[in-house]
């Protein structure tokens, strides 16, 4: 994923930033769901 960002950074910095933000949001959501499942179990 990081190599993908490196490819986009010189071409479209805004788009790369968007990807980073989106990736961060997905990771946060995944962690949240994972912790929720742990609590349910």
| Number of spatially distinct domains | 1
Q: Which value, in Å, is the CA radius of gyration? A: 14 Å
Binned, the helix content reads over 70%
Q: How many H/I helices?
A: 2
| Count of beta strands | 0
Q: Outline, from the CA principal axes?
A: elongated
Order of helices and strands: HH
Distance between the termini: 31 Å
Major pleated sheet: none
User: How confident is the prediction overall: mean pLDDT?
Assistant: 77
Please identify the structural class as seen in this structure. mainly alpha
Low-confidence residue ranges? none
Fraction in beta strands: under 5%
Q: How would you describe the oligomerization state of the chains in this entry?
A: single chain
What report would you give on this structure?
- This protein has 41 residues and is mostly helical.
- It is 93% helix and 0% strand.
- It contains two helices and no strands.
- The chain has helices spanning 2-11, 13-40.
- The N and C termini lie far apart (31 Å).
- The mean pLDDT is 77.
List keywords for this structure.
mainly alpha
What secondary-structure arrangement, pairings included, does this model have?
Blueprint: H1 2-11, H2 13-40
How would you summarize what this structure contains?
93% of the residues lie in helices and 0% in strands. The protein is mainly α and 41 residues long.
């Amino acid at each position: 994923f990081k190599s993908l960002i490196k490819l986009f950074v010189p071409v479209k910095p805004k788009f790369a930033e968007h990807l980073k933000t989106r990736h961060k949001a997905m990771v946060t959501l995944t962690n949240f769901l994972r912790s929720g499942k742990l609590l349910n179990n």
